[in-house]
Structures are given as C-alpha cells and as structure tokens.
C-alpha cells in the first residue's frame, strides 16, 4: 500500500467513525430531546399579570391533552411514556393533564387504591419530565360538587405531591377540577386558600390552578363573574380554571364573554379541560365552534387541554373505540375529535416553533 492509499484509508475510517458517532448522537437526542424540548427551552413557568410566562418572562402557551380518569380502565393504560412521546412528536403536544377522580369509579377518596394512584401520578410526571413536557396533577372533583367534601384528603394528597415534586419544574397543581352543585365562590376560595397554603409549605413556586363555580365557568351562572370580581389574594402564581365543551350551546353563548371580562380584569385563566362534544362527553362534536374557541384562546395566549386520551365509546374520546393501541396511533386509530385535534395542534406547534 502506498502512502496515498494509507491516507485515504485513514480518512475513510475517520469518516465512518464520524458518521456512526453522529447517528448515535442523533438517536440519543431524539429520545430525550434535551436541547430542544418545551421544558428545556421554557423551564419553570410562572404567572405575570393575566399571563402564563416562561423562565424568561415571555408569554407561553400549553397545548395539552388530558387523560380520562387515571383511576378508570379507560384512562390508566395511557399513562405511559410511549403514549406521551407520540403526543409530543406526532401531535405537537407539550403538556399532559393527569386527571385523578376523587369520587367516581373507585376514586381517590371513595375506595381507590391510594398508593397505586399516587404512583401513577408520579410516573406520569416523570415520563413528561423525561420528554421535556409539562404535567398537571388534577384533583378531579366532580360528583361531590363541593371540594370541601374532601378537604383533609386533598391536603394530605397535595402535601405528599408537593414534597415529592417541589423540584420538578414541569409540575402544575390543579386543586379542584369542577366545583358544582351548591359550591359558591366563597366555599371554593376557603378550600383553595387552605390547599394552596399546604402546597406552599413545600413547593414555593409551581403554578397552582383553582377550579371555579358551576363546573369551572368562572361564575355561578351564565353572566356572573365572581372570580374575576373577587380573586384570591396573598399568593403568587395562581391561575383560575375555565372549561368549555364546543358542542354545548350555553358554553358557546356565555363563556367567550367571560374570557373577555377576565382579560379586562387581568384574571389569569387556563383551560385545563375542553371537549369538542356536548358537556356530557358524548353526542355531536362541533369543530366549527372549536375553531372559534381556538382563535379566542390564541389571541390571549391561553393554554388548553383537550378531554380525553381514551378509546371509551363516547365522542369526546380522542381515540377510536376500535383501537387497543396504547401509543403510536395512526390516523385510522383516531376518532373524529382526535383527527381534528391532532391537525390543529400540529399546525400551532409549527407556528410556535416548539
Ligand atoms: C366524563 C367522562 C365519562 C365519565 C364521566 C363521569 O367523559 O366517560 O363517565 O365523566 O362522570 C367534565 C368533567 C369530566 C367529564 C367530562 C365529560 O370534568 O370528568 O368526563 N366533562 O362529561 N366537565 C364537563 C364535561
């Protein structure tokens, strides 16, 4: 072998080495995406005026998906890392909501396996963190109406969670999904102040979201705005919940005006749950109304989480009832709602950059 061909050989070995090295590197990065996830770029979130902002104080919007109840057989299986990764990589999702019912279907306070449910929440937070996504821990008050019904259990639960997750920058606490029935804003406020204090004993910074009267509609009837008129004082990084279902006439009629009012009053709100269906979770979906809602939410950078990641046979479900896949869904595995949401989220991710 002459000198020239030895040099050639060395060069080709070097090139192969470089190629292999960069391929290995790319695959490592694409799994953890350490340099380019929402979490690595935006870090710890906080509340500035009416806005959710990132670590640099810039407005930031979460494009989220909510699980069905993690205590339900139609919710639990989707708390897995591959599912969240599919949502992140194929749907443009940057946050998940872990909905844990307090009462229905072996809820946390009605016979559910507490340790198992907490482990599911912890795992959900961990998967999200590893994937650079945000995660809401949702104390899913519904059937009981008044969150004070389980005040002590809520305090115990959030004490454990706040101790455990105080250094997890991706965690957001949602302390009462949807107060309803007779729960007034002053009942909810009294509950919220105690639970917020409990969380703040350990976690001084994470965003905490407070549910609002009448299934989180910011007031006790169609036109009342008790929350914007009398928010909780004395704490930082607090936001308030607004929920809507695009297939529900009254939600489309009354709630957009409440969003405008809340913005005028500088009330920080987050849509921790919305659906395309009527409020029952089933029936005709309305993508036309959802289009209008997205315009409004985007105008104010309001974060949103769609209900729900499930194949339960109801129209709010994002997966088709026929699919048993727990991740890696193709378009044919999605419901009509799922196809619409995926398309809209991907579009918005492209616009937002990440
Ligand atoms: C619904 C589920 C449904 C379940 C029911 C239990 O979709 O499968 O049987 O809860 O009560 C909400 C609630 C959310 C509801 C959802 C749709 O936060 O728990 O889920 N919804 O009804 N508020 C408005 C609508």
Can you describe this structure?
This protein is α/β, with parallel strands linked by helices and 354 residues long. It has one domain: Glycosidases (TIM Barrel, Alpha-Beta Barrel). Helix content is 42%, strand content 15%. The chain contains 11 helices and 10 strands. The strands form 2 sheets. It has an 8-stranded parallel β-barrel with strand order 3-4-5-6-7-8-9-10, surrounded by 6 helices. A two-stranded antiparallel sheet has the order 1-2. Helix 5 runs parallel beside helix 6. About 3% of the residues have low confidence.
Order of helices and strands: HHEEEHEHEHEHEHHEHEHEH
The CATH topology comes to: TIM Barrel
- Text of the CATH class: Alpha Beta
**Approximate shape:** globular
Count of beta strands: 10
How many structural domains?
A: 1
Helix content: 40-55%
Taking all Cα atoms into account, the compactness measure Rg is: 22 Å
Mean pLDDT: 94
The unreliable regions are 24-34
Strand arrangement across the biggest beta sheet: 3-4-5-6-7-8-9-10
Ligand catalogue: ligand IDC
CATH superfamily: Glycosidases
Distance between the termini: 52 Å
Annotation field: number of helices: 11
């Amino acid at each position: 072998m002459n000198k020239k061909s030895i040099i050639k050989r060395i060069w080709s070995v070097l090139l192969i080495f470089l190629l292999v090295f960069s391929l290995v590197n790319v695959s490592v990065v694409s799994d953890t995406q350490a340099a380019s996830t929402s979490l690595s770029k935006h870090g710890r979130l906080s509340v500035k005026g009416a806005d959710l902002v990132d670590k640099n104080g810039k407005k930031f919007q979460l494009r989220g998906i909510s699980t069905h109840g993690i205590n339900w057989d139609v919710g639990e299986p989707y708390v897995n890392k591959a599912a969240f990764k599919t949502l992140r990589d194929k749907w443009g999702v940057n946050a998940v909501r872990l909905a844990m019912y307090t009462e229905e279907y072996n809820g946390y306070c009605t016979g559910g396996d507490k340790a198992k449910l907490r482990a599911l929440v912890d795992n959900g937070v961990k998967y999200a963190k590893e994937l650079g996504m945000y995660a809401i821990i949702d104390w899913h008050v519904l059937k009981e109406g008044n969150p004070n019904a389980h005040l002590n259990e809520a305090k115990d639960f959030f004490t454990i969670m706040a101790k455990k997750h105080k250094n997890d920058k991706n965690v957001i606490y949602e302390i009462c999904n949807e107060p309803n029935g007779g729960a007034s804003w002053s009942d909810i406020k009294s509950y919220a102040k105690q639970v917020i204090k409990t969380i703040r004993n350990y976690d001084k910074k994470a965003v905490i979201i407070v549910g609002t009267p009448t299934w989180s509609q910011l007031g006790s009837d169609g036109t009342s705005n008790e929350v914007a008129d009398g928010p909780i004082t004395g704490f930082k990084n607090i936001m308030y919940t607004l929920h809507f279902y695009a297939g529900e006439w009254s939600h489309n009629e009354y709630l957009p005006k409440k969003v405008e009012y809340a913005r005028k009053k500088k009330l920080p709100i987050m849509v921790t749950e919305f659906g395309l269906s009527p409020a029952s979770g089933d029936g005709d979906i309305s993508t036309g109304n959802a289009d209008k809602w997205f315009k409004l939410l985007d105008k104010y950078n309001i974060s949103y989480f769609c209900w729900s990641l499930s194949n339960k046979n109801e129209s709010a479900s994002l997966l088709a009832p026929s699919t048993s896949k727990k991740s890696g869904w193709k378009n044919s595995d999605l419901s009509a709602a799922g196809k619409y949401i995926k398309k809209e989220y991907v579009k918005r991710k492209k616009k937002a950059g990440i």
